[in-house]
Please model this.
Amino acid sequence: LRSHTRTARARREAREGFRGKGVPEYEVLAVKVVWKLQVLEGNLQGKARQYRDPAQGEVFLLNNIHYMARKVKESDLRVVVGDDWVRRQAALVRQHASEYLRFCFSRLTYTLRVDPSTQLHKSTLKEKFKAFNLVLEEIHRDQTRWLVNPGPLRDELRLAVKQRVLAPYTDFYLAYKHVMESSRHPGKYLRHDPVEVNEMILDLFVGYQGH
Model:
């Protein structure tokens, strides 16, 4: 109730302030601001579609929508657009994060799927480890170049990746490590232990520009 009262008072003060500056109608101004923000969001959607990798487009959107919403929250515009707009942007960020995870990590976690009712042959395990290594290294190579602004958003996105990848890989690795160690050239398959996979995830989204 106190929060609602403070918000209403802030809007009233902002309305009076805008009128004092010669703005005809506070409500008209709010509509115009929201419309301009929607145009900006539409422009971001258009730019996101230009990425060949849809996962990168989702990261672009969640990063920029989060930035736009943060700037609005930190300014007087929050009073103009209202808390509902801010909540919608937060929901959009979560939606794009979910789409990014789906696009990017479904293929990786698929390599770890096993049928518990069947016994895996060593040759099958080799192919699974090789496939996981290949996809993981591709993701690491590409996504260390992608940029998510430092702070809670990047931390939360990395945490979501860990939850999607690290737990199933750790289970798989520990379950079949001994089988691979008994094969020739085990390092070819056990290329990344769970600790290293965790470190690779922490490398993501730094905007690395090297080769």
In short: The domain at 111-211 is CATH 1.20.1280.170 (Monooxygenase). Helices lie at 2-20, 26-48, 54-73, 77-81, 83-110, 122-143, 152-181, 194-202. The longest helix spans residues 152-181.
